[in-house]
Amino acid sequence: MATPNIKIALIGNPNTGKTSVFNHLTGLNQQVGNYPGITVERKTGSCKLPYGARGIVMDLPGTYSLNASSIDENVVIELLLNKNDKDYPDVAVVVTDVENLKRNLLLFTQIKDLEIPTILVINMSDRMERKGITLDIPYLEHHLKTRIALVSSRKGIGIDTIKGLIVNYQSLSTEPCLNASVIDPDYFNGLRNAFPKQLLYKLWLVITQDVNFGQLERNEIESNSSFAKSKPDLKRMQQKETIKRYQFINDVLKEGQTVDNSKAKDLRARLDRVLTHKVFGYVIFIMILMLIFQSIFSWSSIPMDFIDKSFASLASYTETHLPPGKLTDLISQGIIPGIGGVVIFIPQIAFLFMFISVLEESGYMSRVVFLMDKIMKRFGLSGKSVVPLISGTACAIPAIMSARNIENWRERLITILVTPFTTCSARLPVYTILISLVIPEKMVLGIFNLQGLTLMLLYLLGFSGALLSAWILNKILKLKHKSFFVAEMPNYKLPLIKNVGLNVLEKTKAFVYGAGKIILALSIIIWFLGSHGPGDDFSKAREIIAAQSANSSVSQKQLNDKVAAYQLENSYIGIIGKNIEPVIRPLGYDWKIGIAIVSSFAAREVFVGTLATIYNIGSSGEDEATIKERMTSEINPLTGKKVFNFATGASLLLFYAFAMQCISTLAITKKETNSWKWPLIQLIGMSGFAYIVSLITYQLLK
Fold it and tell me: Going by C-beta distance under 8 Å and a sequence separation of 6 or more, which residues neighbour residue 107?
């Protein structure tokens, strides 16, 4: 009978479909977190297995081998070496791609040598006929000393086979594929004699990698002069190991795999010639971007309008039907508008993540990385910097973490510092509300929406700001070392609806929950600061306004509006806004916008929620308007003109395009650089640049 809880490590090279297999095994039973002590993302999930067993699946970071060159790869090695780790797997499932079997099997043979029960999953079996590939599964199983599951994660074929093999993992052979002593017989025989109770290949990994396991410390090995090796000697031995492994793999595949190119029906080369063309490649990429941004505005308008009106109606209903008092005011003027200011943007954020997921799943995103590498080099960035910059369109935090794959420290540092310029999803709510206020909804050339073009321009401005700052930092830091860009071009494939859906759900939930906590807390704080104030100017506002209006005929509604506006101006939040107004007035902002800017340093998306809360505080409670309508009708009492005119809107858009307004990003920069120096440079440099650009923009357009 199988063990009820089987711990499963899902391992594989990048782009082998490992995530698809994980999604098939676990479905919606997934959790996302970080490995203890580090910020590398980890996914775990549970799955039902035959005979009533349950599996706990760990989706480990993608790695090409157990010769670690990044923190992500180190995570895999340290887990597989430490039997005392609570997450140490009962069985390893290595996912490979049928078209890249030779390269993928290097990692498989290394894991087998750790004597862990290992299952080999050969994915993308549905492509075998089209590629002219045939496999002799019994032969491969015999020589690789394992059981093989031939699957197609795209079509969901073979998943039950994997589950069946997992539940019977105890019957799997743990015999190594290759004897480690073939690398250097004398050295390894001496190592075996000195540490007879330790696994030979684990000893080798401890010597060559920056890891430890069990009670055996590295210095215990290195203190023995017979095992002390210089770094060049160890490097040569590692190279010899890789050669020996590939010789073994070649011998196995010579009989176990047949590739008949005459039967292949491959469009990949022809597509690559077009999509990575030095001219057409860029044209196609720009057209795809335009389609994405047009769709974000067009498709999401109906659900956004519905959400906007629903929250406005809910706030009005709450204020009308609940007993008058502070609690009702808190709910109707603080909590509901604050949350509504985030929920309204779920459709647009979901569409953005959907498009990014489709591009990644299809294999096109790797072509974009390759294409943009030619531009990156001119600005002193590594080609690998393209991945964080593109990932930054979702969120700067995981994007900065992904820069760990850049070996050269200075190139990695520049990438970390400039990645926040890339327009992230947190800016999207600010952009969309401001664009809808100051950019007319009209068509250009009969097919392009002007608002969608503006959104695309802001994304390009953010990317241009990243490149410009990288060029400046490259000159300042005098970057001398160059690194080579190596990118894998996965095969084109139709995106799996399940994978795209799960990714959109996961990322949107992370955005809503992450932002929602901050916004809810700030909405309550802002409501309190806006609903209370010092002195008689706030507490006796109605008497003061009534006295001022005694000689003029005003309706009750107009009187209520004047009282609300007077109270807001003399509240705690009004006083804060008035104090910072002289600094931001040259940018075209009033004190209300100033409050929203200050509060949005916690997270950019708080800007909209803050304004929603402020304007609801200032409303009379009758005929509640939506946030967009309130912002549109807001009048500057000094000029008599609309607050959100084109000049102010353009200034605000550029401020948010370039300013560093995310405490979480500063925190992750500090963690990745191990210093407060670089986050402070990031904060001062980006915010200063944003202020200057916004100042010039407003002064030219007003």
Answer: 11, 12, 13, 63, 64, 65, 66, 94
Are 227 and 194 spatial neighbours (Cβ–Cβ below 8 Å)?
yes
Give me the CATH number covering residue 77. Answer: 3.40.50.300
Sign of the dihedral through C-alpha 354, 362, 65, 161? positive
- Domain boundary residue among 265, 283, 300? 265
Q: Is residue 459 assigned to a domain?
A: no
pTM value is 0.54
Decide: helix, strand or coil at residue 257. Answer: strand
Query: Is 207 within 8 Å of 219 (Cβ atoms)?
Result: no
State how far the Cα of 202 lies from the Cα of 208, in Å rounded to an integer: 10
C-alpha to C-alpha distance for 648 and 585, rounded to whole angstroms: 10
Q: Which domain holds residue 1?
A: 1-265
Q: Does some domain include residue 348?
A: no
Of residues 133, 123, 126, 118, the one with CA closest to residue 159: 123
Give the alpha-carbon dihedral of 459, 465, 470, 473, to 10 degrees. Answer: -160
Query: What six digits make up the tokens of 544?
Result: 């003061």
What is the C-alpha to C-alpha distance for residues 60 and 72, in angstroms, rounded to an integer? 9
How many structural domains comprise the chain?
2
Please say whether the beta carbons of 666 and 679 come within 8 A.
yes
Domain closes at, from 265, 289, 308:
265
Measured distance CA(91)–CA(164) in Å, rounded: 13
Q: How confident is the model at residue 2 (pLDDT cuts 50, 70, 90)?
A: very low
Distance in angstroms (rounded) separating the CA atoms of residues 408 and 653: 34
Please tell me whether residue 60 adopts helix, strand or coil conformation: coil
Residue 173 lies inside a defined structural domain of this protein: yes
- Flag whether 66 is in a domain: yes
- Whole-number Å distance between alpha carbons of 89 and 93: 10
Cβ atoms < 10 Å from Cβ of 547 = 10
Which pLDDT score is estimated for 511?
Answer: 63
High-pLDDT (> 90) share of the chain, %: 16
- The pLDDT assigned to 305 comes to 78
More confident residue, 543 or 648: 648
